[in-house]
Each structure stands twice: as structure tokens, then as C-alpha cells.
Design brief:
Elements: E1 4-9, H1 13-24, H2 26-33, E2 37-43, E3 59-61, H3 64-69, E4 75-78, H4 86-95, E5 99-102, H5 105-122, E6 126-127, H6 138-145, E7 151-157, H7 160-172, H8 176-186, H9 194-197, H10 200-214, E8 224-225, H11 233-241, E9 244-254, E10 259-269, E11 281-288, E12 292-299, H12 303-320, E13 351-361, H13 366-376, E14 381-387, E15 395-402, E16 405-406, H14 407-418, E17 423-432
Parallel strand pairs: 1-2, 1-4, 2-3, 4-5, 5-6, 8-10, 10-17
Antiparallel strand pairs: 7-9, 7-11, 9-10, 11-12, 13-15, 13-16, 13-17, 14-15
Helix pairs in contact: 1-12, 4-5, 5-10, 7-8, 13-14
Amino acid sequence: MKPVKLGLLGVGTVGASTALVLQNNAAEIARRAGRKIEIVMASRRSLAAGMPEGSGDIELTGDPFAVVDNPEVDIVIELIGGYEPARELVLRAIARGKHVVTANKALIALHGNEIFAAAQEQGVNVAFEAAVAGGIPIIKSIREGLAANHIEWLAGIINGTGNFILTEMRDRGRDFADVLAEAQALGYAEADPTFDVEGIDAAHKLCILSSLAFGIPLQFDAVYTEGIGAISTEDVVYANQLGYRIKHLGVARRGNGGIEMRVHPTLIPEKRLIANVDGVMNAVLVQADKLGPSLYYGAGAGADPTASAVIADIIDVARTITTDAQNRVPHLAFQPDQIVDIPILPITEITTAYYLRMSVDDRPGVMAEITRIMGDKDISIEAILQKEPASGVTRATIIMLTQRIREQQMVDAIEEITRLDVVHGEVHRIRVEALDGGA
């Protein structure tokens, strides 16, 4: 059987690792795929940098379109990242009847509907396991391993940079800015860390997971996104005292009124396994009706873990390259004509519990005023922690945990509490998720 020939777009960290693994593990990969798999052409911006030593005899060009147009290439591997020219290159590859493997979550989240429709029309595959959670096979697990299940919800730590920052804040009592600077020095965060710390990267990934879990179109703009920049060491300490840990969580849940898709800091009970996922590691917890809860844990980024997922996709495509397109696993888990445009709930309609922190005057009657407002909004208080001020200080810190309520109730209550003369500054709010079978 003739070899499957690859065209590689991008020879950065992941591209270089992909080339080396394909060369070093060629025999094992061929045993699994049933045929040889080899890169015949690659593109990179800096031709002077060349291909990594030991990656084999690969033609190198500075023009990625030359790779896509090469008639020898069966599968195009897109590892450039970003929106353009990645989108144009992928659509051009599809138009030329070539299969595509990509690690580009931003591309899939924003342009996946267009890309998958084009691929369906041309009868080619677009594989994207490496786009979410690095080397963890979460896409294959949801799309194939859980295919018999009705998925109720999923929650994931799907950005390693944010998880590293929150872990350091908890374990070492450091502030956000200090840890972010270290994350940049270590290469965990970019010079512009906006995508990581503001939750945009996680929102790209959650958008993809939600489509796979619920059979809905990709809708990145509908994901509620909140970053971790406002989390203080105070919040981390108080959460710990209450038996919780703060994680930057992506949550997708199917309810009677629609689908929730949200990324935000979240208090999780410390006894949950996912609450103990630390450093740059990723994890996704999936609640399914027949299997129940299952947790997928591993390296969410890095050259080798991501290359592992890229090559797994290449092998999958190679195995099915001669099969009828109608009998392949659908791109978004459900058959294309079964994708349903279920409403996405606005954040004000989601239901969760809340952690509140506020600074108040240290005098009698303050707590009564606050709890009266909470009662008027039908908000039940689960726990209260009051930090007494030091001698001579006239303000105290109050921490509250509420029971599960609709977000709009909490928004209304915070607005009213903030207007009290005895409350100073912002009322800090973090959502709380139990992540048990019922929530």
C-alpha cells in the first residue's frame, strides 16, 4: 500500500516535534496505520532555521500555499495558528480534495462551521484533537467513547497558564501580577497574556467541547467569558478556609431552557479530583447519563503532548482515507443534518452558587442590613465568615457563600448591597460549582 504523504504548515515548537516523532516512531506508526506516513514538504517563515535535525529528507519552502497545492500531499497539517492565513489555507486544501489535521482551536471555534461544511461537500476529513487540552484525547472520548450517552454537563480546566497562576497564588501566597510575570519568564504565558488570563483561549476550547457534547453549531461569540485578573490572594485564602479551591473553569451544561457556555473563576470543593489539578495541567470532567462522571487529565500544552494528538489524528485519517465519506465519524460527533441550534442561555439566566467578599463598617446592624437584602431577593445563605479588624481599624471583611440561585438575583442583590453606606468598594463575586452528579 502506498505511503500517506503529508504537507506540514508551520515548523515551530509543535511542528518540529511532530516531524521528529513521525520520523523516530515511523515503524510503530506504520503498524498502527497500516501504511507508511511521511512528510514530503513543509513550510516555515525562516528558511534559514531549516528542519529539525533527524526529521528526515523534507522539502522546505517559505510559501505555505505551495505545500497546499503540492499534488503529492494527501493530508495538510496546519500548525500555523491564528485566524488568517490559516483559514484560507485550510479551505484551499479542502477545495483541492486534501484532508486536514489542525491544532488551531481559534480557527475551529470561529470558522469551524464553514470549514466542516466545505469538508463535507468535498468528502474529506478535518481532524482537530490537538485543538483542545493538548495531548488529552478528550475530543475522541466525547465524539466516540461516549457516543451512547446523553451528556448532561462538562467542566474543564482547559488553560494551563491560568491554572499555573492560581496554583502559585494558593500554594505560595503570591499575588497575580507576580505569578504572571514568572509564567511569562517560563514560557507558559505569551508577552501579551490576554488570551490566557482573560479566558479567551479557554472559551475557544469550551465552544468546541459544547458542540461535540450537545450537537449544536459552533458559537464562540455566545460563550460568556471572564478572566482571573481580579482574583486576589485574599480570595484564595478565604476559599481555602471554607474548603474550596479557585479554578479558572469552563462550564457547559444542558438545561430545560437551553445550553450554558461560560468561562470564569470558580470555587470547587477541595475534595473533588478536578480541584486538585495543579500547575499547567489540564482536566475535563464529563457527566453522562449512563457512564456517570468521568475525568480526563493530562498535559494540556507542550510540544510532545500536542504532537501526540496531532499524529493520532494523522493515523485516524490515514486509516479512513479510502473509506466512503458518509461512513466516517462526523466532525462534530453528530451527523451534519442532526446539528440542532438550541438556544444559548445568557449569563443572567444560569443557576449557580456564589462566594461574596465585601468590606463593611465594623458596627452593629451591618450584617442585618445585608441579610435583609439577600432575603428580599430569595437568596439563602449557606455560610458566613467575618474577619474581625485589627485594633484601631474601623472596617471588617465579610465572606458569604450562598445556595444555588439564578444569576440575575445575585446581580440585583449586589447592586442594592453596593448602595449601602456601610459597604465600601466593590462586592467581589465568584461563582461556586459543586460538580457532583446533580450540579
